[in-house]
């Protein structure tokens, strides 16, 4: 049953400058949104937390994908569909493309944005584990200028971020790698498609002379925020390949802190996380 829709105010600026001026005029009063895929759910349920919204969908300054020699820069309003179809992202950042392909159905993918997936700050979001493993950086802009920050420190707690009320997330930057990396992404949900994740797992690695030379691991839905598992990485780095699964599972079990909720249990999430890690690490045995 549709709830009574609450009264709200909506502004739709057509330039980035106008949007930033509005946010700066009353910091914390205005809530930005773009594709609105999560907002519409709250609207239908009568659970809108704010009463003043800024629709930033028309801001052309926040769109586009640019590939330079050292990095790829993605506008915050880039949709999941656009991510999946970009040749450089498909070739070099396949985990991000896979995450985009597993986020909702076609309607969500045509409307939902990468910036929204980040700024919505859900620990169950599909793209953050891949972004963490890729060492993504975020550009935050305001009327006073812009700043680039590491995505690794962006989320500070459940639904908490370091972005300020007068700032917008403008661009996401991914460093391009010349290394031949093994890349691994898995999303586990109730269904194979159109499901919120119970566990989301992303990892990259390369090996040298029978040992793990470099590894990056990140998970979603196993902590209050998407987490880069740096302690597990440290426990694995430099170790013989045949010893990796047991070393890794012991370290990861200590690093993740899942909860029981409507979608799953903490015990299930731990078990699945360890199984995915073992599957990833075992696959490295066939890596030259």
DSSP E strands, number: 14
| Rg measurement, Å | 20 Å
The strands making up the biggest β-sheet line up spatially as 4-5-10-6-7
Largest sheet: 5 strands, antiparallel
The succession of helices and strands, N to C, reads EHEHEEEHHHHHHEEEEEEEEEHHH
pLDDT below 50 for ≥5 consecutive residues: which ranges? none
Strand content: 25-35%
The level-1 CATH class of the largest domain: Alpha Beta
N-C termini distance? 57 Å
The global form is globular
Q: How many DSSP helices?
A: 11
Mean pLDDT: 94
Overall domain count: 3
SS-derived structural category: alpha+beta
What level of helicity do the residues show? Answer: 25-40%
Known CATH architecture of the largest domain: 2-Layer Sandwich
């Amino acid at each position: 049953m549709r709830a009574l829709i609450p009264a709200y105010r909506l502004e739709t600026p057509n330039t980035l400058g106008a949007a930033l001026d509005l946010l700066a005029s009353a910091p914390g009063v205005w809530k930005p949104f773009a594709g609105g895929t999560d907002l519409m759910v709250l609207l239908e349920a009568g659970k809108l937390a704010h009463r003043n919204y800024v629709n930033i969908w028309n801001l052309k300054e926040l769109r586009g994908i640019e590939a330079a020699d050292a990095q790829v820069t993605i506008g915050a309003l880039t949709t999941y569909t656009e991510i999946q179809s970009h040749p450089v992202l498909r070739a070099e950042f396949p985990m991000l493309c896979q995450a985009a392909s597993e986020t909702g159905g076609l309607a969500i993918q045509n409307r939902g944005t990468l910036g929204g997936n980040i700024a919505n700050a859900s620990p169950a979001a599909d793209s953050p584990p891949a972004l963490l493993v890729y060492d993504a950086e975020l550009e935050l802009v305001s009327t006073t200028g812009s700043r680039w920050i590491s995505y690794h420190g962006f989320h500070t707690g459940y639904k908490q971020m370091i972005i300020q009320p007068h700032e917008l997330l403008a661009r996401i930057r991914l460093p391009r790698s010349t290394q031949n990396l093994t890349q691994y992404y898995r999303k586990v949900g109730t269904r194979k498609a159109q499901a919120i994740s119970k566990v989301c797992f992303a990892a990259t690695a390369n090996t040298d002379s029978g040992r793990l030379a470099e590894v990056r691991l990140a998970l979603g839905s196993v902590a209050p925020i998407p987490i880069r598992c740096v302690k597990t990485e440290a426990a694995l780095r430099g170790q013989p390949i045949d010893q990796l699964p047991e070393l890794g599972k012991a370290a990861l079990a200590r690093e993740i802190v899942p909860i029981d909720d409507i979608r799953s249990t903490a015990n299930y999430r731990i078990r699945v996380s360890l199984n995915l890690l073992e599957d990833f690490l075992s696959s490295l045995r066939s890596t030259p």
